[in-house]
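Translate sequence into structure tokens.
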Amino acid sequence: SIFSAFRKLFHTLWFFSLKNGTIKEMVLQFLYTVKTFSKQRKEFFYIMKSVSERFLTYIKQPTTSDENSSAIPSTKQQLIFGDFLVKECQAIGLADASMDRHGYVMATLPATDPNAPTIGFIAHMDTSPAVTDTNVKPRIVEHYDGKDIVLNTAENIVMKTADFPELLNYVGKDLIVTDGTTLLGADDKAGVAEIMTMAEDLLNHPEKKHGKIRIGFTPDEEVGAGADHFDVKLFGADYAYTVDGGALGELEYENFNAAGAKLHVYGRSVHPGSAKGKMKNAILIAQEFQKLLPVEQNPMYTEGYEGFFHLDALSGNVEEVTADYIIRDHNRQLFEQKKELFLSCADFLNRKYGEGTAIVDMKDSYYNMREIMEQHMHLIDNAKAAMEELGIEPKVSPIRGGTDGARLSFMGLPCPNLCTGGENYHGRYEYACVQSMEKTTELLIAIAAKYANR
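Result follows.
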């Protein structure tokens, strides 16, 4: 840019005129004039977008991921959205923005402090397959009054404070909601919007100090594949934050250890009129398996650090049943014990009904990032300090789930999780607070400044 060229000229003149105050004043005044003119001209032709404007644009694009797809990424819509983000990055001045063949978008915000570490900010582009994100119809509830919110009069879909008491924390705020027929997409397009708005703000305010910032947008996080093809070396950050949490102030560096288990039960179908001593009903055997698991270790009875076995899907008939489970625990030792118990239940059924009756396919998904974060607690300390300076109350709590950051931390990129300002993810009652998204954008800028002023 013109400003950068004259800055280099200024440094040269400064070196040769250390004792000549007049030349210094002339160069400084000229430099200031060029900078001011350049900034004014840019602002005349381009008006910065607010984070909520970006968000409302992004959620119009469907990006649901598909756990049953073998494609990478799992849906084409994510590639379309990724290409959209690349073009937007380039439009605001992130010249190196690109998307690889797996759908990962990366871009660089050059440093104003070259001595600061490189910090990454990461969000995912896909939305949960739990509820459709096609034809999202958002509405802004301005100055929320604390009452139940009617999302859809025709279908009588109402978001009630009795069901969602957290709504009362947002009295007087502006809430973005759906019409009750789709999810909203704040998970994680709010995070994408906040990162993009942060980048544009810093590009337009070179006086704000920060090191090199790497931006990453990932596909397929919702189906557990967000980090599968993430190139940590190419990303090149020393540390990073995922922007994928919930309410303002959430700061998370502990998550479940997680595994997925698929139980196959094989039975024998015989006419019920002559089934005595012959039939093996796979449906009943699968029910028996479920009863062998500790009843209190069910998601509906657990909270905080308590782990669980969750039966997520069940299909089949007398001949064959397939049951999909997820196994979770924050404690690594208890996690391993849960997996052993699951396998031992299958062994018991094989001894009872014959070898090959119950077959388990089990695979670890991710581990508790705390193991890595304990070596890099400055990431948590700086985020908490930045929150407090902005008047945000830090809410440090364990994630009862996982993020891309959990896997990235074990891939060599320490990566705790920050809030986005959304609530009720993965459902038709999802909403996002405009003021919370604005504060989160300020938080990202403040964290970047912390590492420049370390």
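Note: The chain is about 35% helix and 20% strand.
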